[in-house]
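Ops channel
N.P.: pipeline sanity check, posting one input/output pair.
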């Protein structure tokens, strides 16, 4: 149970921690000052959402997200959100490719080198079907989470930051709703594609609670660190580098590698959602669909990393609020429907 639970936990976290999150840009767009309660609410909402999505996926033994989506929003809205999920996965994967280019630029490599590198890596990953993604998540994510948490804790200690000094100021609590909603659609897509591989409800609870608590703790410490350097963030495409400038160059290299892997795992999760959906129509080898999909994305990366996040993420966060509401209320109305039968 624990081994499988960790596998799904890392899949959830890998889907969520991408270029936007790991770089700090996504957190700063939604949270910032007076957001401690918002992050606590996000943690609760995220746990409930993950457990509900995985439970439906497990019960349906789904291999792609449409059966799960129909259970959540109903048949009529499922078609609308089917299109939205596809567009979300497509555009956020473009953001990940752009993030790879931006990471390379931090070391004076050409923007296109970073994009070509991640495209080739994704093609190689999916040459082994989806088992390659599950395997790489279990290797990379523990290192990524440990490294990110280590940097943030050291920064907090070095700067003598108080983690709870502003807990009485919580005017931004409502940000929990669009932030959680933003991260729901990719989870429906990815977890909906692996329902036939989940073996028990115990691993669902383990994965849901483990991923929510992990992301909640890291988000709180990360946001608290960004608040201290708020004046400098306008100068950085990737806010994490504003924190890393206080440390030796070796640390910058190490964290940049981890940041790239965070980008890679989320891009891979997005590609998984896209190709399993497309494959339900085409029934072609996954690697062919992956190559075709990635080639259409490359021209869109010219829009820039921070511009894409600044525009797309708040829009998706608002549009997905209905899905979040349905997920949070699902245990209640699902039980009511069962009593009627």
């Amino acid at each position: 149970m624990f081994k499988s639970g960790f596998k799904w936990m890392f899949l959830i976290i890998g889907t969520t921690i991408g270029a936007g999150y790991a770089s700090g840009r996504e957190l700063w767009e939604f949270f910032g000052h007076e957001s401690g309660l918002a992050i606590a609410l996000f943690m609760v909402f995220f746990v409930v959402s993950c457990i509900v999505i995985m439970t439906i996926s497990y019960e349906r033994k789904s291999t792609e997200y449409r059966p799960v989506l129909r259970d959540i929003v109903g048949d009529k809205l499922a078609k609308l959100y089917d299109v939205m999920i596809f567009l979300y996965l497509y555009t956020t994967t473009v953001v990940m490719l752009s993030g790879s280019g931006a990471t390379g630029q931090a070391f004076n490599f050409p923007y296109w080198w970073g994009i070509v590198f991640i495209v080739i890596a994704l093609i190689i990953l999916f040459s082994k079907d989806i088992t390659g993604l599950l395997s790489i998540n279990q290797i990379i994510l523990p290192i990524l989470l440990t490294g990110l948490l280590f940097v943030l804790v050291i920064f907090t200690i070095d700067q003598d930051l108080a983690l709870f000094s502003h807990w009485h100021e919580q005017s931004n609590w409502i940000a929990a709703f669009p932030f959680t909603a933003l991260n729901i659609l990719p989870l429906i897509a990815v977890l909906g594609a692996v329902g036939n591989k989940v073996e028990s409800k115990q691993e669902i609870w383990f994965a849901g609670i483990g991923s929510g608590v992990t992301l909640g703790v890291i988000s709180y410490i990360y946001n608290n660190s960004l608040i201290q350097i708020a004046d400098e963030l306008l100068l950085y495409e990737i806010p994490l580098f504003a924190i890393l400038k206080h440390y030796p160059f070796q640390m910058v290299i190490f964290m940049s590698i981890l940041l790239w892997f965070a980008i890679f795992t989320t891009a891979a999760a997005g590609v998984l959602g896209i190709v399993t959906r497309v494959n339900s129509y085409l029934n072609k080898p996954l690697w062919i669909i992956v190559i075709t999909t990635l080639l259409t994305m490359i021209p869109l990366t010219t829009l820039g990393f921070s511009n894409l996040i600044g525009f797309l993420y708040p829009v998706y966060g608002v549009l997905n609020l209905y899905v979040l509401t349905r997920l949070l209320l699902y245990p209640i109305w699902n039980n009511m429907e069962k009593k009627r039968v």
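N.P.: looks fine end to end. The mean pLDDT is 81.
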